[in-house]
Design brief:
- The protein has 162 residues and is of the alpha+beta class.
- The chain is built from two helices and ten strands; from the N terminus they run αβαβββββββββ.
- The chain has a single domain, classed as Roll (SH3 type barrels), CATH 2.30.30.220.
- 18% of the residues lie in helices and 33% in strands.
- Strands 2-1-6-7-10 form a five-stranded mixed beta sheet, covered by helices on one side. It has a three-stranded antiparallel beta sheet with strand order 3-4-5. The chain has a two-stranded antiparallel ribbon with strand order 8-9.
- It is globular, with a radius of gyration of 16 Å.
């Protein structure tokens, strides 16, 4: 017998990644409007992530980049995006597959998304807890904790718990 279960979690994940993809496409064409800026967290351990080795050494598991004032060459494809950012006054090129995304946050409107990457999907989820706060680590490794009122969408609530 075949598995006839609708995979809602995968459908929602694809839709949420589509939101980020569309935002990045618009940003590549028109820039960021008003006070909008994006924090994008991704897994540095994903096999298709391309970042300089010194950044991979410094951010062994995940990294958050900030798209605000200084970013260049933003290019968005179906499965990944490329961008150039400044790290310690050096312009570096990054290539990030959408399936490596862990989080997206726009603090100007208090909007965020939480993703479960494909690598994480192999780990059995024992508990699903509501997201009460999000910690964002910027490139200089400082933390900014929100007040718990973020519009975070987490897919854990949709996961099949075994």
């Amino acid at each position: 017998m075949t598995d006839e279960t609708i995979k809602y979690d995968e459908m929602v994940q694809d839709a949420l990644i589509g939101v980020v993809r569309n935002l990045l496409i618009d940003t590549a064409k028109h820039g960021l409007p008003g006070e909008h800026h994006f924090y994008i967290t991704f897994q540095t351990t994903h096999p298709d992530v391309i970042i300089p080795s010194y950044l991979r050494d410094r951010y062994e598991e995940d990294m958050t980049i900030v798209l605000q004032n200084q970013f260049w060459d933003l290019k968005v494809e179906e499965d990944f995006f490329e961008i150039a950012l400044s790290f310690n006054r050096n312009k570096e090129h990054l290539s990030i597959p959408f399936e490596a995304l862990l989080g997206f946050f726009d603090p100007s409107v208090d909007f965020g998304l939480h993703f479960n990457s494909e690598i994480d999907a192999t780990v059995e989820i024992a508990e699903a807890e509501e997201v009460e706060e999000v910690a964002i680590t910027s490139a200089d490794n400082t933390e900014d904790k929100t007040d718990g009122k973020d519009n975070i969408v987490t897919l854990d609530a949709f996961r099949n718990k075994k």
